[in-house]
Amino acid sequence: MSLSAHRVEAGYPNAASVLKEVELDLQAGRFLCLLGPNGTGKSTLCRSLCGLLPLRSGRVEVDGQDLAGMRPRQRARRLGFLPQDIQPAFSFRVEETVALGARVAGHGRWFDPHLSEEALDSVRSALRQVEAENLLGRELGSLSGGERRRVLVASVLAQEPDYLLLDEPAAMLDLHHQAQLFAMLQRLAGEGLGVLCVTHDVNLAAAFADELVLLHGGRVHARGRGEDVLKEDILRPMFGNHFQLLPPIEKGAPPVVLPAQSGQSSGRTS
Q1: Pairing of strands 31-35, 163-167
Q2: What are phi and psi of 252, to 5 degrees?
Q3: Burial class of 3 by CB neighbour count within 10 A (0 to 12, 13 to 18, 19+)
Q4: Could you tell me the sign of the dihedral formed by the alpha carbons of 240, 242, 247, 251, in that order?
Q5: pLDDT at 158
Q6: According to the model, what pLDDT value does residue 103 have?
Q7: What is the pLDDT of residue 218?
Q8: How much helix, strand and coil, in percent to the nearest 5, is found in the chain?
Q9: Between 3.40.30.120, 1.10.10.60, 3.40.50.300, 3.40.30.10, what CATH number should domain 2-229 receive?
Q10: Residues of the chain where predicted confidence (pLDDT) is lower than 50
Q11: Positive or negative CA dihedral for 79, 83, 89, 91?
Q12: Could you tell me the end-to-end alpha-carbon distance of the chain, in angstroms, rounded to an integer?
């Protein structure tokens, strides 16, 4: 089982293509992190994989089925997508937010001020997966950044998708909540979900993901485990001289990637 992009080219109206013949395969039970410079097409790829952005050429397949031939509700039942930023127009309670995700996929008529016991059971199940069941009854606007992110992930999980795609889910979170979120995504992949996460945090991705996919110039530049792709000859075309590599903090771990200090060239330091 996999979510696959085959020679995908995509872009926005009245502009050149952002993605150019992208090949990508996200298998069920795997956690992939998508990294690359700003403007290289990471968000565009997520939207293309979900069917939210029409392709100019190529195709996306879900377990061998062409995504273009699937109805929106079918897509919602297979693919869960969390965009970079969500600003609800209304102050939803936590359970209403999660129930709305289930309703999008057609798992019940649950967008109601008084949720049924069946609906609440499913909402609690989704919140339990993200360790946020204790937030029931709270309003979304009253939550911390980390709590809010976990609830939004739960709303996508309530769709009961096979593949979960998240665009910068840890943006603006503190170190504790970043690590907590990535550990949760790692666990969900271990339970059978295919997880693709866009992030700018190379070290966080290398610590938790099964593989890193490096996107550059709208193409897949490299893919592999952190220790295999976090190398100077691979990173230099993407980031120029603006990084430095430090030795792994323990045996078998990937190297640490840091911004280069002013006046310091890239490369491994001791």
Answers
A1: unpaired
A2: 90, -10
A3: buried
A4: negative
A5: 85
A6: 65
A7: 93
A8: 35, 25, 35
A9: 3.40.50.300
A10: 110-111, 269-270
A11: positive
A12: 43
